[in-house]
Amino acid sequence: MRTDVGRGPLELLDLRGFTLPLRVFVKRETAAKGVRLADGPPPLPKAAIEAAKQAETPLPSGRGGL
Questions:
Q1: d(CA 50, CA 4)
Q2: How far apart are CA 13 and CA 4, in angstroms?
Q3: How far apart are CA 26 and CA 52, in angstroms?
Q4: What are the start and end residues of every segment in region (Disordered) (predicted)?
Q5: Span 52-66, pLDDT tens digits
Q6: What's the CA gap between 48 and 3, in Å, rounded?
Q7: Which residue, 45, 49, 51, is CA-closest to 61?
Q8: Which of 64, 31, 28 is nearest to 48 (CA)?
């Protein structure tokens, strides 16, 4: 199905019943109080940390070291 005319791809999404959310991003100042926002990737599971301790090539050092 081509969507080169009209509103383009959004028109096809309307036909499928898709609606865009009103808000996609949340600004830091509007985040809930007491909720800490992550500055980096999520923490590794304990099993991954234990496996990294046994590996020949260790994990790079960073926040929250081994």
A1: 53
A2: 13
A3: 34
A4: 36-66
A5: 888 877 667 765 544
A6: 46
A7: 49
A8: 64
**Residues near 62 by beta carbon (within 8 Å), at least 6 away in sequence:** 40
Tokens matching residue 6: 């009209």
Instruction: Say if residue 21's pLDDT is above 60.
Output: yes
Count of all residues that appear for the chain in the document: 66
Note whether 13 and 6 are within 8 A (CB). no
Distance, in Å, from the CA atom of 27 to the CA atom of 16, rounded to the nearest integer, reads 30
Which tokens belong to 33?
């109080």
Residues 55 and 66: their CA atoms lie apart, in Å, by 13
Q: What would the two tokens of residue 15 be?
A: 């036909």
- Taking the complete model, does pTM exceed 0.85, yes or no? no
Per-domain boundaries in the chain: 8-55
